[in-house]
Amino acid sequence: MMNIAQMQEQRLEAIRLTGAGAPGLPSNPFFGVGPITDATTDEVDSRLRRIAFDTWIEKTYRKFDDRGNDIGGFTTAEISRSMHRGYPADKILADMMRAIHSYFGFPGTNRMAVGLGGGHSGYTVCVQHLLNANDASQRVYVDTPAPESDHSRAAGFFRQSWATQLIEMHRFAREGNENRINFAATEGVIPTADELSALGIAIFVGVGHETTGANAYTSGEIRELLRWLDGDPANRHAVFDATSMLGAMPWEPELVEAVMAKCCLFMPFQKAIGGISGYFVASFTPHALALIERNQENPSWAIPRQLKIAPPVDPRQPFSARRSVDAGPFYDAAEDRMLGGVINTYSALAFAETTFGLLQSEARVGSIVNLNRRSAANRDVIDQWVKTHPLFSLTVTDAERRGAAVTLLKVEDAGITDPGIHARIIARSKQLLGYEGITHPNGEYEPGLDAARYVNAFPGTPGDYRAWVGGIREPEDVVALLENLQYAYLRAKVVVLEEELAKSSVTFEAAARAGEAVRKDDPSRAYTVLIADMVGLRFGADGRPDHGEVKAYIEEKGGVFHLGPLGDREGLEKGRIHFFYQPDLSTEAEILPQTDRGQYDALIAAATFIPKASVFPLGGVRIGAGTGNMGSASWGGGNGEGGVAPLMNTPGINSRATAQMAMKAVLKVLPDLPVATLHRMVAEGDFDTGRQLKDFPTAKLEGRKMAVLGYGNIGREVARLAKAFGMKVAIYAREHHKRWIEAEGFEYAATPVAAATGADVLSVHIGLGRLDPETGAYSNAATVDASVLGAMNEGAVLVNYDRGEVVDVAALDAALASGRIAHAAIDADLFKDAATGKLSGPMLPYLPLEERHKGKLELLPHAAADTDHPSRVAGARQAVDQIMDVIRIKSVTNLKGDLPEGYVSAGSRTPAGIGKVTKQVAATAAEKADLLDELRQASENLAAIVGALSAVSDPGHRERIVDRYTGLLAESADRQRALLDQLGLYGPA
Questions:
Q1: Collapsed DSSP state (helix, strand, coil) of residue 256
Q2: CB atoms within 10 A of CB 263
Q3: Which of 240, 301, 869, 973 is the most buried (most CB within 10 A)?
Q4: What is the DSSP letter of 565?
């Protein structure tokens, strides 16, 4: 028993070894369901597989009228409603048996039986039909030690149960003699052909390797068994429990082929494939079937009805009629048909699932030859991993005898010598591997990894963990399993040792809770932030824009709000973040004296241009999307590249305000109804609707084309508004946006010209792009040139509520003059020097056009986004959050450009329904249980009704569905869309 110091040392070492955190998870946590599974990775994948299965059923099993005409497919619902006989149930059974027979390479000469029950039932079928206690010459060899012998005790119950069944059959039969059964000295070893012959063996039963699956026969043993069978094939038989063997035979392909042809095999197939009811299949050689027929002439024991594979030829004479395998539940590959059916009822749907599962497996991993190779390769992966991880050893030490379907591992921890403590650690590790998790004595809880369920070794088995790792699994999944086993053992070891130490009054403080951010700011200093733009656009009682909402938010978050510039820094309260509000800062001359020496740690700005020489050592946030005005070298200028501090933005905050203003500009001129003229005429009583209305024709927006350049937050919002008016929308964006653009029902355009071709409206939202430091030009400058404008319809409308530079002003001048563009709405910055009155900014080149094209040009001072009070407040509040996270925990949200050393990215954040659907958005939605349940119900209603309409081809049946469910269909569709918008789940990911 360890002393306190040794336990402390062992605990610390386990903590050190797990300090990097849990390893990556396998794609599927179920490692105990057999060598072949449906391989779905999670609940979503499983539901999608179920939908694919439903579709496959409908396409595969068709209805025919009495003239042979295809009148539609059977649905899953129809097949599940107790269709156990006739068509299509008989076809489903035959298809499944054919699929199993074909995929696993059973030879055409061998018939394959099917019956209800699992592995024990299949074993019973084989031994009860092949063995005959009345035949005194029939001797049996079983490759497992005799039950309750010294050698068998390590094998556990499951191996012994197979052998026990053989003994009890003989012990309770009138002519039985258990001495005719020869048991192996050790598990899973096949004697030589000469040894079997010398013992006078007629039937070899192979179960020793199978009941743990961790063992395999060597190629030499298989060759000897085949040589023994070939010596007298009519009177010698071999039968294997093949649950793990199928798809995991680690021998040469010709040996595998010979085993399939010359041996009888049984397996609980439905359990291995996955489904809703258990059954077994058993393959018999022609010689074995002949033996069964002979045994039925002088039976030595009763065989349960559902297991009987040689039923009476005349079912009206169950005792006296001849029994024959020709009437039994067999698939005959030579004739490609079933001889009889399953005795007792069964689920046709479960059989169809097996066929579908095999088709999926074949598509994913290839032929059975490839599956065997993959299984052997996974065994090699395990061997190599164990060689480099001394904490584990393989229970089967002989590499050639290790199974390729199952691995059986034991822990070799020199620090734990007490068997009781070892057993507790193993048990706790399995809690952590699953979903239960483990709790430390101090109350600290480690949630379950959900990495591996059912990795229990059978009772009595000499090992700690057992898992199926056959070729259906990818090698990286196998490695992930092993890494998680090691991690879980070490974490469980920490807990158990802490429990032991607690008995000696040694306790430990709980660590910080998972997910809790660790503060990284300095409590001995005050932090300062400059707010260089307005954070409220609604006027307060003093007649100035009201900043009260943001001030209250800062104070609620533990910050301090100051009006005016930073004064005495030493007088500021330590350990707090102080925000200094100066919304009237505008020129470089005003900004630099306050910022050139890093007087402020961080910055929040909106439209103000920040000089390159301004220093903000901890970062900056731009309220809005574009960061071209954020010129500080602290973060590398507007691109955010190469600086020491992070640059951030608040994309999407003012997207809707900008998009709505863009649509307002369009609606001023389209539809082209002269509203002012009509208003004046009506107000003056100078209009006769019957006679004069024909003189004012107009065309609605519906059906016209809008071209949108850019699929950012604003461009997407404009496109959605245009679509709501019934317009056709073409969007130009980078190619990786294509799938999302088309998914939302818009047309994707590869170039600006392609988008503009035939358009009645063009709305620009691409931003300035990258700044070329050598030329001083932005990459998107003059994107809207003569070729783009010339591709539009005559009399089109241009809206540039983006940046003034993205339009070629000379080309616009010409287009306005020619009438190609009938109206242009421009929103760009304009600045005026208070001392000289001199104008500057991107709007400047547009001013001469206004003189030349009176009434055709509408000019705004970059006001579309910045006149919306709620948007500005929301953006400022988010900016405050971002700055506080950067200072307190070095976490950066909405990073623009490079992530400086020492910071971590927290991803992106946008308002619900704006921008991309991020993982954070999906996670937030998942926490809103009521809304999510409602969305699930609406979605499942939709899937059910649409699926039924798609599946049903009979007009009368379809009409009944339409009558019953049209209201629910429309209601569910409307509710689903509303909920998707409310949860922010509608849009690109």
A1: helix
A2: 24
A3: 240
A4: -
- For residue 670, how many C-alpha atoms fall within 13 Å in the half-sphere facing its CB? 28
| Alpha-carbon dihedral 317, 321, 324, 328, rounded to 10 degrees | 0
Distance, in Å, from the CA atom of 141 to the CA atom of 221, rounded to the nearest integer, reads: 14
Closest residue by Cα to residue 396 from 462, 458, 457: 462
Side chain identity at residue 263, one-letter code: C
pLDDT digits (tens, 9 = 90+) for 435-448: 899 999 999 999 99
The span from the CA of 537 to the CA of 861, in Å, is: 15
Exposure string of 541-553, with b = 16+ CB inside 10 Å and e = fewer, is eeeeebbebbbeb
In this structure, the number of other CB atoms found within 10 A of the CB of residue 681 comes to 15
Mean pLDDT of the chain: 89
CB of 309 within 8 A of CB of 328?
yes
- How far is 112 from 331, CA to CA, in rounded Å? 5
Sign, CA dihedral 871-872-873-875, equals positive
pLDDT at 913: 67
CA torsion sign, 261 to 262 to 263 to 264?
positive
Residues 566, 860: Cα–Cα separation, whole Å: 34
The structure tokens 């480099």 sit at 388
Q: Which helix (H) or strand (E) holds 858?
A: strand 857-860
**Of 677, 723, 716, 719, nearest to 701 (Cα)?**
723
* Neighbouring residues of 153: CB distance < 8 A, sequence distance ≥ 6: 460
Structure tokens at 442: 């101090």
Please give the Cα distance from 818 to 820 (Å, whole number): 5
Q: Smallest Cα–Cα separation from 762: which of 803, 719, 798?
A: 798
Rounded CA gap, 557 and 595, in Å? 25
- Which two structure tokens, joined as six digits, stand for 129? 């039909």
**Which residues share a beta bridge with 904?**
891
Distance CA 295, CA 577 (A): 91
Query: Is 906 a residue whose pLDDT tops 50?
Result: yes
50's enclosing H/E stretch is helix 43-60
Q: Find the helix or strand (DSSP H, E) in which 962 lies.
A: helix 955-982
pLDDT beyond 60 at 514: no
- DSSP letter, residue 550: H
Nearest in space to 626 (alpha carbons), one of 862, 784, 830: 862
Bridge-based pairing of strands 337-339 and 527-531 is unpaired
| Distance in angstroms (rounded) separating the CA atoms of residues 126 and 113 | 10
**CB contact burial 791-816 (16+ within 10 A = b; e otherwise):** bbbeebbbbbbbbbbbbbbebbbebb
Classified as helix, coil or strand, 896 is coil
Cα-based torsion angle of the residue sequence 917, 919, 923, 924 in order, rounded to the nearest 10 degrees = -50
DSSP helix/strand/coil, 949? helix
Q: Which residue bears the tokens 């990894």?
A: 449
DSSP, residue by residue, 717-734: HHHHHHHHTT-EEEEE--
Copy the structure tokens of residue 399: 């590499």
Question: In angstroms, rounded to a whole number, what is the distance separating the alpha carbons of residues 189 and 187?
Answer: 6
Name the CA radius of gyration of the chain, rounded.
39
DSSP letter at 796 equals E
Residues 337 and 93: their CA atoms lie apart, in Å, by 10
DSSP 443-492: S-EE----S-B--BPPTT-S-SEEEE--TTS-HHHHHHHHHHHHHHHHHH
| Distance between CA atoms of residues 798 and 896, nearest Å | 29
- Hunting for tokens 């071709």 — which residue is that? 757
454 alpha carbon, distance to own chain's centre: 22
Is the link from the previous residue into 88 a cis peptide, with omega within 30 of 0?
yes
Q: What is the DSSP letter of 945?
A: H
SS3 label, residue 534: coil
Listed ranges 329-333, 446-450, 615-619; the one with the highest mean pLDDT: 615-619
* Bridging pattern class, strands 337-339 and 330-332: antiparallel
Mean pLDDT for 93-100 is 92
